[in-house]
Design brief:
Strand order of the largest sheet of chain A: 2-3-4-9
Strand content of chain B: 15-25%
Largest sheet of chain A: 4 strands, antiparallel
Mean pLDDT of chain B: 92
Number of helices of chain A: 0
Number of strands of chain A: 11
Oligomer: heterodimer
CATH architecture of chain A: 3-layer Sandwich
Strand order of the largest sheet of chain B: 5-2-1-9-21
Helix content of chain A: under 10%
Low-confidence stretches of chain B: 397-401
Bound molecules: siroheme, flavin-adenine dinucleotide, iron/sulfur cluster, FE2/S2 (inorganic) cluster
Shape of chain A: globular
Distance between the termini of chain B: 105 Å
Helix content of chain B: 25-40%
Strand content of chain A: 35-45%
Order of helices and strands of chain A: EEEEEEEEEEE
Largest interface: A-B, 38 and 36 residues
Number of domains of chain A: 1
């Protein structure tokens, strides 16, 4: 479900910001010309991925480096590129409509009661 | 044993000896050299002038090499006569020696065009170490240098002098630069690029006289115009040193005439190197000459067989950030197709000359990355029919590994030393080579102009199972330069932002290693007057606090000299309660840490504290630790607190390669532990000791004495001068303890506290400029750089609250 998040100006180019939605927290990155969104928490020990430095990812894409211990997460596939572990984080489609960033959020996750 | 005499101790003569030693036949060898240095790499004189290498770094064979191989070396001994009947050579000092075989390896000398006044002081040619040292003695900021000649040598000299701070003008006789290697489009583009580097070019002008009393003062042109000059370099071409051979009656043209076996007209006499003329051709670059050296070694050791058939000329300009390469023909002729890429905006021009589907020449300006491939086509006469559609565009390579795999084994990787890919690979396997240093030693690859270093390192990495990085390594793989190179690039190309460096010199994206380093470099090069880009900073430097293991932050307010007041302490207590700070701790640096603060609370915490940032997160000045000193202590002989607070005020909010911690102590009992600080001041009766490079973290190191001075103001000045010197010369993430060990205290003293007054002033001036641009980071709490710097984004829809409603 496409969800309106915020104006494009809220996220400076090459930086990320997190946003809390009903059942999840996601990190959105402005990659200059396009945006990417992934789950906000690092699969290592929950570091804030929105605070990481943006770098090159698989092929010609982008990745983010977690500020806590340097895990590198691909922003397009969600794969962990460094270290070599087979974990990935959730990724979301992003589009811009009338200057507003919209993220495609799947229907609400079941919340533990 | 036959005796062999070599006249000339230069690059090619000695290379020939190295080759001779590899053969079985033994000679009793003596070398005469009129220079006073052992065998060095002449090519790299340009780098010495530019400050990229020191004079000792360019030695090829030191004195021990001659000794080890039993070669007699006569340095500073110029041969003035060769008598072919008696088979003797006579040197200037009167010594006479007999030979069975004789090699001329006398190189060439600078061609000096007819001009008045060339003997004035500070007029130089650019040929040997003495010339270079002479220039280095006079070249300094503020001096005006005029280089006569816009060829390879002239341009390299111009750039070197400019990097030494001189204002440089190149005077060139025809309209376009490097006209012996480039067509006019290339020459004009090169002129523009030189001008962009800040070098003035006067093309199509002829200098006719050098004016001045004793020292040079001006250069005069044919039309009577004059330009002022403190230094003049004549680089108008070279001329083979053949006079000695000519006087001895050996056949000579412009150079000493040799055949394909490097034999002269006298069967006992041979010639090799720049002094030769072969099939009407003389050479001014080393690669073909090293080929000659190999051939001559075979000829002279009774293995006559290999022949030297001449090479197509190739030339590469060694100016960093300005790629120029030319090989073979460079002017269109009827029957030749010129394939061009010309993007003046990007400063790139490429031209390939193709005849009968074969490459006969190429000109590359602005991007010479494909020069190896073209050289290979040129040398091996590759048929290009199938490649005609994509001559200028190699298959895009995605990673370095595959581009290395793409190179054919026979391709020459190091053009200067003629080392092929196959040779490097077999050397790596046979000798178990692991580092670039070993590769150099074993194959000589990269020891010429050095431009193939990246390729060789790639090969080594790909092939050697236990590759070891060199110490002089590049910052990271996003941009293949060392930090020293990058500083120079940022400065000379006038780049003010991280992103721009990455786009022009790197992969356009960068990573967590190079971005913070570049952020530091642009800051320090422009003394704070740069375009700050927060996206290139680690999170701590985006929000001015230290991230904790749970994503919260710690706040350490500045408490200069560790001195506080009851009202500050009260505010700290209030803040701790108001924001429910989980931990309040006295730190190891005499101040108070509030840990566990949420990002969005940071601006309010700072506002309520009303204290400046202690920069406990920054690679910058941390604190100045002090003891009580004369204020209260019965032993105090100097005002430690007052001096420490003053120092902290002068240096706070400035960044350094790594964190920098200072200490000031009121007497040698050293209660503030300053001998393990990056900079420490130790109070003594009537004087201060200033110490630097101490450490008590991962490493423990006692600081070295920088200087002892009488007054407090002098002590502070010494600290400031060292601080700025470390800022300008330290590698990013290099603590002062590593820095002083890398440079050595002697050099540091010479360039800081003992430096000429004007250099010291310049360091302080740059420090002051940075200080003027700096500010307390926490003021951003009130005026954030963007509206979401500290706060989380509130979604327009889909929030938790909405669902609840
Ligand atoms: C808070 C503090 C410990 C304390 O509770 O006392 C501390 C905390 C940290 N130190 Fe430290 N160091 C603290 C004093 C020291 C000292 C003692 C001193 O300053 O007198 C040292 C030894 C002296 C020195 O600097 O070498 C010290 C040597 C280190 C090192 C080793 C540096 C080295 O090259 O040897 C690191 C790691 C590094 O920087 O790479 C480090 C790194 C860290 C980091 C920044 C680790 C990190 O990356 O997150 C810790 C941050 C915690 C935080 O968020 O506050 N800390 N650290 C001290 C803060 C001082 C201040 O007020 O600013
Ligand atoms: C600044 C500079 C930059 C260069 N850059 C490059 C480059 O990038 N690429 C490249 O391929 N080439 C470059 N060259 C050219 C390269 O250095 C030469 O091609 C090479 O040094 C030639 O070697 P050689 O042994 O023939 O002559 P040299 O190295 O000049 O050696 C000849 C030696 O003989 C001595 N000598 C002469 N006469 C006598 C005598 N009568 N008695 C005793 N000794 C005598 C000379 O003093 C000299 O030491 C550069 C040259 C200079 C000066
Ligand atoms: S020694 Fe320093 S870096 Fe290590 S846990 Fe303690 S505060 Fe953290
Ligand atoms: S929490 Fe992200 S790397 Fe450890």
């Amino acid at each position: 479900m496409w969800t309106r998040i915020t104006a494009v100006e809220s996220i400076p180019v090459r930086e990320g910001r997190s946003v809390e939605l009903a059942d999840r927290e996601i990190a959105i990155f402005n990659l200059g010309g396009r945006f990417a969104a992934i789950d906000a928490q690092c699969p290592h020990r929950g570091g804030p991925l929105c605070d990481g430095i943006v770098t090159g990812g698989q092929l010609k894409g982008h990745a983010v480096v977690c500020p806590l211990h340097g895990w590198k997460i691909d922003l397009d596939s969600g794969a962990v590129l460094k270290p070599d572990v087979s974990v990935r984080v959730e990724t979301y489609d992003v589009r811009v409509d009338g200057g507003i960033i919209e993220v495609d959020i799947p229907c609400a996750r079941k919340r533990a009661a | 044993m036959e005796s062999l005499i070599v006249i000339g101790n230069g690059m090619v003569g000695v290379a020939c000896l190295e080759n001779i030693l590899a053969h079985k036949k033994r000679f009793d060898i003596t070398v005469f050299g009129d220079e006073t240095y052992a065998n060095y790499n002449r090519i790299l004189l340009s780098s010495v002038l530019a400050g990229e290498r020191s004079a000792d770094e360019i030695t090829i064979n030191g004195l021990d090499w001659y000794q080890k191989n039993g070669i007699g070396l006569r340095l500073g001994a110029r041969v003035i006569n060769v008598n072919r009947t008696l088979r003797t050579v006579t040197s200037e000092d009167g010594g006479v020696m007999q030979y069975d075989k004789l090699i001329f390896a006398t190189g060439s000398g600078a061609f000096i065009p007819p001009m008045d006044g060339i003997y004035r002081r500070n007029v130089f040619t650019f040929r040997n170490m003495d010339d270079t040292q002479g220039m280095l003695r006079v070249a300094e900021p503020g001096k005006r240098a005029v280089v006569i000649g816009g060829g390879l040598l002239g341009l390299e000299a111009a750039r070197g002098l400019q990097l030494r701070g001189c204002a440089v003008t190149v005077v060139h006789i025809v309209d376009t630069l490097m006209n012996n290697q480039l067509d006019s489009t290339g020459g004009v583009l090169l002129k523009r690029r030189m001008e962009e580097l800040g070098i003035e070019v006067m093309a199509g002008r002829r200098a006719q006289a050098i004016l001045g009393r004793d020292e040079v003062e001006a250069v005069e042109f044919m039309d009577g115009d004059r330009i002022p000059a403190d230094i003049v370099v004549i680089a108008a071409g070279i001329r083979p040193n053949a006079d000695l051979a000519r006087q001895a009656g050996i056949a000579c043209g412009r150079g000493i005439t040799v055949n394909d076996f490097l034999e002269t007209s006298d069967p006992r006499i041979f010639a090799v190197g720049e002094c030769t003329e072969h099939r009407g051709e003389t050479y001014g670059l080393v690669a073909p000459l090293l080929d000659q050296a190999k051939v001559l070694a075979a000829t002279i050791t009774d293995n006559r067989g290999p022949v030297f058939e001449g090479w197509k000329p190739a030339a590469k300009l060694k100016i960093m950030g300005l790629d120029v390469f030319s090989a073979g023909e460079f002017q269109e002729t009827p029957g030749t197709d010129a394939v061009r890429f010309d993007d003046p905006g990007a400063g790139i021009y490429k031209k390939l000359l193709v005849r009968d589907n074969k490459l006969v020449g190429c000109v590359l300006v602005g991007d010479a990355s494909d020069s190896n491939r073209y050289m290979d086509w040129l040398r091996s006469n590759t048929d290009l029919t199938v490649r005609r559609r994509s001559l200028l565009f190699p298959e895009p390579v995605t990673d370095k590994g595959s581009s290395i795999a793409d190179i054919p084994d026979s391709e020459t990787v190091c053009g200067c030393m003629g080392v092929t890919k196959a040779k490097i690979i077999s050397a790596i396997h046979e000798h178990g080579i692991q580092s670039m240093a070993q590769l150099k030693e074993c194959t000589r690859a990269t020891t010429g102009c050095g431009s193939c270093a990246g390729l060789c390192e790639g090969l080594l990495k790909a092939v050697s199972p236990e590759f070891e990085e060199d110490t002089k390594r590049v910052l990271c793989k996003c941009l293949p330069f060392t930090q020293d190179n990058l500083r120079e690039i940022i400065q000379t190309q006038k780049i003010k932002s991280v992103q721009e460096v990455l786009e022009i010199y790197g992969n356009g994206i960068g990573c967590e290693i190079c971005k913070p380093a570049l952020s530091y470099l642009v800051d320090v090069v422009w003394c704070g007057d740069h375009d700050e880009d927060r996206s290139a900073r680690f999170i701590n430097d985006r929000v001015h606090a230290n991230i904790q293991n749970d994503g919260t932050f710690s706040v350490v307010p500045r408490m200069r000299g560790g001195v506080t007041t009851p009202s500050e302490l009260r505010r700290i207590a209030d803040v701790a309660e108001k924001y429910k700070v989980p931990l309040v701790k006295v730190t190891g640096s005499q101040r108070i840490d509030l840990l566990g603060i949420k990002k969005q609370d940071l601006p309010n915490v700072w506002r309520d504290l009303g204290m400046p940032s202690g920069q406990a997160y920054a690679k910058g000045l941390r604190m100045v630790k002090t003891c009580v000193g004369t204020e209260f202590c019965r032993f105090g002989v100097q005002d430690a607190m007052g001096t420490g607070i003053e120092l902290e005020k002068r240096l706070e909010n400035l960044f350094t390669p790594h964190k920098t911690k200072l200490g000031v102590t009121g007497c040698p009992r050293n209660c503030a532990e300053v001998t393990v600080k990056d900079i420490g001041l130790i109070g003594q009766e009537g004087s201060w000791q200033v110490v630097v490079g101490g450490a008590a973290g991962k490493d423990v190191r006692k600081a070295d004495l920088l200087i002892t001075v009488e007054t407090t103001e002098e002590a502070i000045e010494a600290a400031l001068v060292f601080f700025q010197y470390y800022r300008e010369n330290g590698h990013y993430l290099e603590r002062s303890y590593g820095f002083v060990e890398r440079l050595g205290m002697e050099k540091i003293r010479k360039e800081t506290v003992y430096a000429p007054a004007k250099d010291k002033k310049a360091l302080l001036r740059r420090l002051q400029k940075s200080k003027a641009f700096s500010r307390d980071a926490w003021t951003e709490g009130l005026t954030p750089v963007n509206k979401t710097q500290f706060v989380q984004i509130q979604p327009m829809e889909g929030s938790a609250r909405e669902v609840v409603q």
